[in-house]
Every structure is written in structure tokens, then in C-alpha cells.
Amino acid sequence: MADLIQLLTNGLALGSVYALAAIGFVIVYSATGVVNFAAGQFVMLGTFAGVATLVNAGWPLPVGYAGALALMALFGLLFYAVVYLPLSKSPVVTIIIGTVAIGITLQNAALLTFGSWPFRLVSPVEGMMLEVAGAVIPLHAVAVVVATALLIGLLWLLLNRTALGIAMRAVAQDARTARLMGLRVNALLAFTWVLAALLAGIAGLMLGPMWFADVNMGDPIALKAFAATIIGGFGSLPGAIAGGLFVGLAEVLGASYVSSAYKDLIAFGAMILFLLVRPQGVFGERIQDRG
Amino acid sequence: MVVRTRRTMLAAAAAVLLAGGAARAAEEPITVGATVPTTGPLSLTGKLYFNTLTMAAEDINKAGGIKGRPVRLAIEDAGASNSTAVSAFVKLVQETKPPFAFLTSYSTQNLAVAPEVAKAAIPVMYAGGADAVAENGNSWMFRIRPTDSLAARAMVRFMTTQLKATKPGILYIQNDFGQGGAGVAARRLEEAGIKVVASEAYGQNDKDFSAQLLRLRSAGADVVLVFCYPADGALLLRQAKALGLKMPVVASSAAFVPAAMQLLSPADLDNVWGVVDAFVDPGAGGRMKDFADRYKAKFGTDADAYGLAYYDGAMLMAEGMRQVGTEPKALRDWLAGVKGWEGIGHAYTFDGKGNGVGDVAVVKAKPGTKALEAVTSVKLD
Amino acid sequence: MRSVLVLAALLLAGLALSFVVSEYTLRLLNMAVIAAVAVVGLNFAFGYAGLISLGHSAFVGLGAYGLAILTTKAGWSPWLAAIPAVAGTGLAAAALGYPLLRLKGHYLALATLGLNVSFGIVAANWIELTGGTNGIAQIPGLTLAGHRIEGERTFLWFGLAVLAVLGLAALAIHASRLGRAMMAVRDDETAAAMTGIDVTGVSVAAFVLSALYAAVAGCLFAVHVHFVSPDDFNVAHAITFLSMLIVGGEGSVAGAIVGAALLTFLPEWLRVLGEGYLAFFGLMMLAILVFLPTGIVGLARRWRRPVRPAASAPGGARPGVQP
ipTM value of the model? Predict the structure, then answer.
């Protein structure tokens, strides 16, 4: 029983990270139609923004986090201007390949800047453990789950209860009409990218203390986030969350109860199965909407 | 540039002293090729021997080069894929025609490059551990690290004789190194009549090992043999402690390179033994201390066994070139005959398959610290 | 007819190069030719039928592993082993295609990506058959009429011959009823169905054709490098194949070949930049996508347009239209 609790918490913490990465991916996709293959590198940059402010510059925690997020916001803006705008009229595949190309650049730029050594970010609750029925749970893992839940709540409020969020959704639905209605479409699109970068930044900062920061961590995260997105439903926020948690739990429980060598087949198998049986995922868009 | 000019002049001066009138030949550097992963996930370890190869070349040249001729390194990125490694090697051979080259420390890259080595007909040193690399009958290839099976056998021997464990569990990374090592360990244990209670794998990019570790515990393992790479090794040692695993852990070399050690706290190393290629111990004094001190001064981090292997290899190469010159075939034959050459990390003797190292060290952190100390050295035939 | 000439010109350029360039460049040319075979195949799926596949390197891997296993474990000649390797891959593609190809656009892209990841996991863990992550070494080379096809130059001649045959076949299919059906499906599925085209059948046919070419490329890879391991067929390679097609110019055989060559050589050329060369490679690729939206072949076509405005290149003069 203790083991099961342990596995469930670890799976949920892992799943929260995947969910956040998936949300960043989904927000961009719903608002701009871009399938962002550099999404994993966004998270990697988030972690390294933390490395830059907390480790290299040695800023205290709150300031360091704020600084890292400011860097990520700037990065989102830059990405919008340099990558998204020039490619925005291109076909889906060209954009996919474009984000892959820029992902290669981001990964290697990080390698040049930070080197190949892994870094460790210190958690605000470093070393603190909770004991629940014999299972040992790092407080940080709990904090990650709680922070993810909180963040999702805020995001929901933003998208559904604020003028800004409603305008964003209007642009996502139909950019041309939104423009005709007098919405500043470009500013809203830019904000979407900033938001995605911020979410990836938070995911990166949260996983820094759980994993080690390493410049090659982006692609594996992206693969899991893709699986999460498909399982939950393309373009759906609750879907991204459900999918992320499913992939995280499948990874940990699969390794425990099925086979540690083949555990990743569960997530990707489920992803393919979902595509075949229910391509719109658990909570997904109608697939005719895009594609 | 200034430095280089001065070095060339020094080398030239040395050549005049050493070889009398052979000053003209002394002008011409000897180009030695090296394929090193400097990009991608493998660059963490690649950087280690990128450093020591550079350092070795400087040391060789400071000592007068090869009969007055300076050594010049031509390094190409081997990336993270086999085909990049092969391209890098072919490019080196093509463009610099080196009499000798270093390959990477990754077995699959070594395996992929092997046919090109035979084609180029130059001796190479490599540090991939998989036994398969040496089974191809390629007489140009010399291994400057223990084979993975040697390390696995040493783990088994240490575990049975010193730790007196009878219910081993195995945890391995899902790549050529981990699968190979785990396979050998399992076979050895079976031969010794010991049953492996659980054998668990994890992916190269995995970040959570709780499922594997808990399975090892619930299977009743009284020791865990770990075959890992640097960062994942550090992460799983931390998670093992966080989960409260009490049994001793015997981990492979990579978990003890400085890049991994810096991620750990002393508590993470409690009850952890390392079966490492070589123990880089500044406390040992002599050449080891000299090497470790200079490495730290030059690169700002501690030296490690991977880097040392290439440093030793470069020195051995230089010795060979001094003895028989730079003709590839002669150099190959000389290397094949090396017996008990005293490097810093090992005494190197190449067997019929080109394996040069026959011993590994067992290390452990001093209680409450991260400072490693030697426990024993395991020598196997 | 003109695309046959373009194909011939490209192949002759390769042949001419084979006499003058260095061993290293010959090796890169061989890698480019092998990639080109795979990308000409991918062109059926994506360029003609509009199916985004990020699983192409799994099919290359199936072909390569098929040949590797049959030659090293069963002792078959590589010629003989190539037949079941290629045919088996085609069957696998058909079996996967029927359920998968109901998906479109990025759904299909991610499904095939998942397929490629799954292939890697199985190849890395089915140790008895595939040698696991250690891969399979010492795959024998080809011999033809007593001559060994060994050495980069000889292999390049052989590779070019294979590419010539497969390139011509691709052009013939493009001009055939099947090829036109594929493009009709790509451009408007509903309209195609209304004219009596079996949409699923045509899509699966394109997918199978692309897998057959991929398997041939895999066989070439195995007998060229003599070593296969799961890493050689991972998702990154699949993305590279698609990138080659886009950069060269989708929908055209010449574009597939040019793209394969360019993206094989570009990172190697950029090595002179030192440490940051891959960062620069990414930027260059992005620049190509932004400034040459129809690929390199598209650029050539655009540049020629003022002279022959009505020229409908048989390579498929499609500006980046998406299904």
C-alpha cells in the first residue's frame, strides 16, 4: 500500500510537469494553429533561465524566479517576432519543420551558453519530506502538484472571465473576424506566445529541483507532452491536464506493474490507440476544426 | 597564436638538441585525429576527454614533442549519432591523414566506425566498453578502458566476496552500455549459483526511478547493481535515498564522474560503492596528483576516469611514436606488443583483441563526505 | 519529360562527382543518395498524397533490420535478404496504413511519430532478435557478378543506379492514374471521392509505396555502414527526412533528391564554424523555410516562370498548398 501511494504521488508529480508542458503547447495550438515542436525546448529554457538567475547570478529565490520568468516572457515575444510571424502564413508542415529547426538552434545555443554539465536547482522546500502511510513524499512534489492545479485555475479564469482571455479565444476561433471586430490581433497573438513561454518557464523552474537541468532535456519532455495532448484531446486545456497526468502515471505504474523496459510503449500505445478510436481525445476539439 | 609560435620554437629548439641536425623535420607537426562528441547528449562525457586530449597534446609538446615534432590535434564532433561519428572519422582521415586517431567512448559509435578504421588502416584508441567492439577481429583498434563485462564481473565479485550479498537486484540504463553490463552480471551471477531477484531497466531520458527502485526493494534485493550514465546515475542515487532504500548499492563508473558527483550530497553516497574504471585520487601523490592538480587548475573541475583514460592513451601513443615513428603499421604493431606500460590510471597491456585494461577500482565515499577513497582494486584476467 | 531530364542531370552530376571528390565527400554523397531514396519514397506519402508522416525512419529501420537479421543470423545473401525485408516492410505499412490513414494533418503526424518511438523501444528491447541497443554489426556487403560493391566510389555508382531506377519509377507513378488519384485525394478528398476514387485505398497505396522506398533505403544503409542500431532510426531521423522533402520542394522527385543532398551536406559544411555549428544549422533551415516556401526546386521554378509561364512541371507545380 505504501508503495502504491508512493508510485501514485511520483506519477502525479511527473504528470504535472508533462501537463504544464502540454498546456503551453495547447495554448499556442489553439490560438495560432501552430504545432510547436520546440515546446520541449521552451521548458528546457525555463529551467535554464532559473539556472541563469539563481545559480549563475546567485539571486535570492523570489527575485530569481521573477527574473527567470521575465526572461521567458521576453523569449516568448522574441519567438513570436522571429519565428512565428515569418512562418505564420506557411502550411502546417513547414511550420512544424520550422519549429524543429529553431529547436535545434535553441538546444545548441543553450549548450554553448551553459555547457554540458547538468545543474541542480534548489527547491524552496529543499529536503523536506512528508510521510504518508509509510510512503516518503518530497514536499516539492506536492508543491508541484498544487502549483499546477493553481495555475490551471488561474488560466481558466484568464481565458473565460477576462476581456483579454475572451479576446484571445476570439482570435483563436477566427482571426479575420476578430480583426474586423477591432481586436488587436497581432498583440493578442504575441501575448499568446508570451503566455506559453511563461507556462513553460514555470514548468521548467518546478522541475529543476526534481530533475537536473540539462540542455538535452527538451525533446524527451516534448514527446511526452505530445502523447499527453493527443490522449487528452488536441486543443483542450482539461485534456492536456488529464493527458499529462495519465502519461505520468502510466510511466511510473507501467514500470512497476508491467515492464520497466517497455513502459513507454504504454503512453505511446495509448496515444496511437486514442488517435484511432477517438482522435478528438478525451476532451478534444472537433477534428474538422483544423488540419 | 603567440603561445603557439613560442611552442613551435620551443619544440624546434628541443629538436635541435635532441636530434641534432634534424631541425627541418621538426618544423612539421604530427597531426593526430580525434572524434569527440561536442554537441548533443553525449557531450557531457565528450567534454571530459576533449579536455584531457588537449592537455596531453600540450604536455607532449612541452616535453619536446615526438623527437622534436609537435603534436597537433584535429578534433571533429562525433555528435550523438552513429552516422555523425562515422562522417567525423572519415573527414579526419581524409583531410588530415593522421597516423593515429582517438574514437569516442560510446560503443555503438565505435562499432559503426570500425569498418572505416580498417579501411583507413591507422591505429586508433577507443573507450566504448561493449565487448562486441573487440570481437570484430579489427586489429587496428585498441581499447583504453575496462570492458563493460570486466566491470560487471568485478561488480559481481565485489558483491559476493566483500558485501556477502546473496539476493542481488540489477538496475540498468536502456542503452548498449547498460544492457550489456546487466547481461554479463546476470550470467556471472547465474554461473555462481546466485539468483537475481529483480532486473529493472530505465530509459536514457527517464527522470523518475521510483517504480524500479521500489520493485527492487519489494523483491527483497540485499544489494543493487546499477549500470548508469552520469546524470541519471546521480538522480537515481538521490531518489534511492529519498525513498529510504537501505540496501547497499554498487554503481558503475559514470555515477562518480565530477559532473555527477556535484549533483549529490554526502547522504546520497551513504552505503554506495562504485566500481570505477580508475580511481582519480590526488591523494595518491606522484603522477596522479600532478595530473589531477593540473587538470583542476586548467579546467576548474575535478579530473575523472574517462578523461584520464584518454590522457594515458595519448601518452602511450606518444611513447609509441617515439619508439617506432609515425608509420601506422609499425605503430599498430608496437601498440599490440605493449606489456605492462605504466600509465597514470592503469598498467596497460593489450591482449589479442586490443583490450588494454585488466583492472578496475572499487571506491566509496568517506562517511559524511563526498570525498572518495579506494576500497580495493579488482584485477581479472 | 522535363523532370526525367532533371533527374538524369542530378544523377549524372553525382556520377561526375564520383570521379573527382575525396573519399569523405564520397561517403557523404552515399549518405545523401540513401537519404534521397527514402525521401523520394516519402514524397509519395506527403508530396503526392498529402499524408504527413513522422514515422518514415521506422520503415527505413524495418528494412535495415530485416536485411541485417536475415544476413547475420540466418546467413542469407544480402540480395536475397533484401526481398523479404522490403516486402515485409510494405506489408507492415499496409497493415498500419488502413487504420492510421483515417487521420489527417497533424493528427497523422503525431500518430506516425508515436509509431516511430514505439519502433525504437521494440528494437532496443527485443534483444534476442535485434541485439538490443548494441545493434547488429558485421552485416555483409553486396557482391555483383563476382565484384564486391565495396568502397565509397563503387557503392555510390550502385546507389545512383538504384536511385535512377526508383526515381524513374516514381516519375512514372506520378504520371499514372494512381499518381493523379493521389494528388486528387491530397487536393480535395471529397471531390476525389465523388469522382469515384477509392480515397482510403489510394492513401494506403501511397503510404505503402513510401514504405517500400524507405525499406530499400534501409537495406542500402545496412550494406553500406555494415552496422545498424536503434539510434539510426529514431524520430530525429524521421523529422530530417520530412525536412529534406520540404527544403528540396515537396511534390517533386528532383526536390526530394536536392533536399536530401543539401541537408546531408549542410551540417558537414558548417563544421568549420566550430562549436556553434548546429545552432547555426537550425537558423539556416528556418531561413530556407521562410524565404523559399516552395523549396529549392520551387525557387528554380519561380525563377523560370517569366520565360515559360504555362510550364506545368510534371514534378507537380504545387505552391505550398496544404491538405
Answer: 0.86
